[in-house]
Structure formats: structure tokens, C-alpha cells
Amino acid sequence: MRKLDNIGQLFVISAPSGVGKTTLIRRLQSSRNDLCFSVSATTRAPRPGEIEGRDYCFLSREEFVRDIRADRFLEWAHVHGEYYGTARAPIETWLQEGQDVILDIDVQGARQVRCAFPPAHTIFILPPSIDTLRERLQARRTESAEKIAGRLIVARKELAEAAWYDFIIVNDDLEEAVADLAAILRACHCKMAFQASKVRPFLRSISDI
Ligand code: ADP
Ligand code: 5GP
Predict the structure, then answer these.
(1) Predicted TM-score (pTM) of this structure
(2) Which residues have CB under 8 Å from 104's CB, separation 6+?
(3) Mutation probe of ligand 2 site: the residue of 74, 106, 112, 154 with most atoms within 8 A of C-beta
(4) How far is CA 159 from CA 9, 24, 89, 94, in A?
(5) Would the CB of 128 count as within 6 Å of ligand 1?
(6) Is residue 67 lining ligand 2, measured as CB closer than 6 Å?
(7) Which residues fall within 8 angstroms of residue 112, CB to CB, at 6 or more apart?
(8) Residue with CA closest to ligand 2 atom 14
(9) Could you confirm whether domain 10-36+98-207 is CATH 1.10.132.30?
(10) What confidence tens digit (pLDDT) does each residue in 96-140 have?
(11) In the chain, what are the domain boundaries?
């Protein structure tokens, strides 16, 4: 088994746009300041209020393609007509330092991360219903009606991928969904693969009896 005891854990969160990933992750981060959030690169335009380096690294298409060619991404994908990608270097550093890392990425990116790093834990967030998802996208007021319609079409395809994720959370009541997310992170730390160094001394001491 690969030695995982001393490295951080990687959590991959996916959901159709508007389900509430950003809201959930921000809430979790406000109660756990030891969580590292990977800020993605994207070619989409910043929304009002979004800050370079906090919400995304906003790149031109030329810059993004240059970074693909230089193998700087752990994963990247074409989503809603734009490029999105996760920089490889900070993730590797954080995990080696023993810090937990959260990625908010789409289903294509999640598949790539699972292949590149099988111990990653995958979490899919469901909306209570498609109607609620539409209402949340409309209430957020960050996309035009045309873009919202496009995101809902993509959402149907993404929802079909939920079945292969390790964990499912329904983001209906926000407090409950945040509690579910925190519980999943905690439970993952108790998995055998990450606790072997604690079990081994007991096995050795038993063999001496
Ligand atoms: P995503 O990051 O998945 O695209 P956001 O976090 O931006 O989604 O959430 C989309 C909208 O839904 C925001 O306006 C947010 O305030 C709202 N929202 C998120 N979770 C809930 C919830 N549990 N109940 C009601 N509204 C929510
Ligand atoms: P938004 O434009 O609403 O911020 O994000 C649109 C979609 O892109 C969401 O599903 C989000 O999870 C996904 N996304 C954000 N960053 C990345 C990334 O680095 N890689 C991939 N593959 N998808 C991402």
C-alpha cells in the first residue's frame, strides 16, 4: 500500500453550477482555517465581486494553453465554453506538508484527478430539485438567461455522473449540508489507509505477548 499516513488528504467536490459548492466550501473554511482551497485558473471573465487569486486566476486563452503545454495543470477541462484548470504545484506542496486540500472542479476534472491520485475522496453535491437549481442560478444574478439555460443543459449531464462519486450530499438545508461535508472530511481521516502508522505499533506489541 502507498504510504499515506503523513500526507494531507485531497477532497474533490463537484456539482452543477449553482448548486452551492462555493457557499458550502466558504462555510466550511470559516470553521476550519487549516483547509487549503485550490484556486483554479479560468479563461472566463470575472463576475462582479470576484477577486483575482482568491476566486480564480483569470487567464487569457493564450496563457491557459501555454500552461497546458508546460504541464502545469493536475487536470483541466473545457466547461461551459471556457477553460478551467487546477495548478499542480501548490497541491503537491500542501499534500506533502500534511495539509488537507479541497478542489471545486467539474466532473471531467474529477475523473482526471481520480486517475492521477486514486486516494482522492470525491464528493458530489446534489440540488434538492432541478427547479431549485434553476431558482438558485436566477437568484445569483451572475449569468444571462441564455447562459443559465446552457448551464441547466450541462447540469443534466453532470447529474448523471453522481453515481461514481464516493459521497453524495444534498444541499437543501445549508446548515445540514455543511455538517455533512464536515462529517465526511472527519470520517475520511479515520480510514485505515491514513491510520496505518497508528495501528502498526499495536500489531507489533501483540506479537511480543
Ligand atoms: P456554485 O458554486 O455551485 O456555482 P453558489 O455557491 O454560487 O453555487 O450558490 C448559488 C446560489 O445558491 C447562491 O446565490 C447561494 O447563496 C445560493 N445557495 C447556496 N446554497 C443554498 C442553500 N442551501 N439554500 C438556499 N440557497 C443556497
Ligand atoms: P463557475 O464558472 O460557475 O465558477 O464554474 C463552472 C464550473 O467549472 C463548475 O462546475 C466548477 O466546479 C468548474 N470548475 C471550476 N474550477 C475548475 C477547475 O479547475 N477544473 C475543472 N475541471 N473544473 C472547474
Answers:
(1) 0.93
(2) 13, 14, 21, 22, 25, 37, 38, 40
(3) 106
(4) 25, 18, 30, 30
(5) no
(6) no
(7) 74, 75, 76, 77
(8) 105
(9) no
(10) 999 999 999 999 999 999 999 999 999 999 999 999 999 999 999
(11) 10-36+98-207
Amino acid at 158: E
pLDDT of residue 1: 39
79 lines ligand 2 (CB under 6 A): yes
Whether 84 lines ligand 2, by a CB cut-off of 6 Å, is yes
Q: Is 14 in the pocket of ligand 1 (CB under 6 A)?
A: no
Q: What pLDDT, in 10s, does the model give residues 159-177?
A: 999 999 999 999 999 999 9
Counting ligand 1 atoms within 8 A of each CB, the residue from 12, 23, 140 with the most, and so the one to mutate, is 23
> pLDDT band at 20, cuts 50/70/90?
very high
